[in-house]
Amino acid sequence: MTAAAPADRRRASGRRRGVVVVLVLAIGAFAVGGPVWLRTAGSTVLAGEVPVEVTGTQAAPGAAAAALVLLAAAAALALVGPIGRWVVAAVIAAGGVLLAASALAVTSDPGAAAGAAVAEATGVAALAAPVTLTAAPIVAVALGAVAVAVAGWIAATSRRWPLSSRRHDRGVPAAGPSPDDDRAAWDLLTRGEDPTDPQLR
């Protein structure tokens, strides 16, 4: 085993770690959009006060879009070369910003998101109770910030990662016999010897 082998394994593990981290962020973004983000109530003439719960995907559709972006970035990170990794890092950062911004928009003005949900549930946008925020949008903001940090880490370290597949790289010559090998094989043939005999190599 050569001295370079452990270093190569460390670089390969860096790529795998990056893919896993981004995949976990994507799953987290999907998961945080499912729970309730807002609770409030509306009112109708027939039913009186109607409790309304608003999930993350209802309150912040951008959060679901960010999750899809991160999922696609995780898949791309496993395949692209050095230049493509910079592009993927930028996409991851954009997904993180979208996730955080979508959640911050809800926390800064929860009444707007709640009003839309109340109008859908009761037909009237007027709120009959104060809006209560859960911890989910705060978690979404944190996930978005982590995604931006991960994008910076990938941009800083990915230049040391190994190439995904050398056969896709430009400038790598195809494997084949060298001219010296051809001449040696011809010399053996002219002497009546088998050039494929391993004992003659």
UniProtKB/TrEMBL annotation:
Membrane-traversing stretches: 19-38, 58-79, 86-107, 127-156
Biased composition (Basic and acidic residues): 180-201
Protein name listed in UniProt: Trp biosynthesis-associated membrane protein
Keyword Membrane belongs to the record: yes
UniProt KW keywords: Membrane, Transmembrane, Transmembrane helix
Region Disordered, residue ranges: 164-201
Superkingdom, taxonomy of origin: Bacteria
Highest classification ranks of the organism: Bacteria, Bacillati, Actinomycetota, Actinomycetes, Micrococcales
InterPro entries named among the record's database cross-references: Trp_biosyn_TM_oprn/chp
